[in-house]
Design brief:
This is Transposase. The chain is about 35% helix and about 20% strand. It has about 150 residues and is an alpha+beta fold. The radius of gyration is 15 Å and the shape is globular.
Amino acid sequence: MESGQRALRRGRHSQAGQVYLLTAVTLQRQPWFRDDAAARAAARSFGSQASLGDARLLAWVLMPDHAHWLLELGERDALAQVVRRIKSFSARSANAALQRLGPVWSEAYHDHALRREEDLRAVARYIVMNPLRAGLVQRLGDYPYWNAIWL
């Protein structure tokens, strides 16, 4: 039987210009990002050029124990490289804010390549509405850890 991580990687491919919906969870679903300083630090790192390379972040939300990213892959880097960098930069930033060492993110992540006919704005709305569905806030504007290029 395949391990969970190996099964997730089976069939994974990177295609330049492809838009992916990505989900990563924290290690053992620890709610590291309930801490505002850690959440702010991680959120700042998501959009950094060093983190993204030539990929483009279209929308994202950071929840207490997971994150969703809508990402358009660039020409240079494979999907796994970009995700590894996003998780690495955000983990280092969060750890500095939390004054701790050690892993923040689970090694695995889920990706879904969007089909051309899928409405990117609808997917972005779904992503950024996570805090409302989770009951963290009553209005999206009250939740600070999200962004979308259309909003």
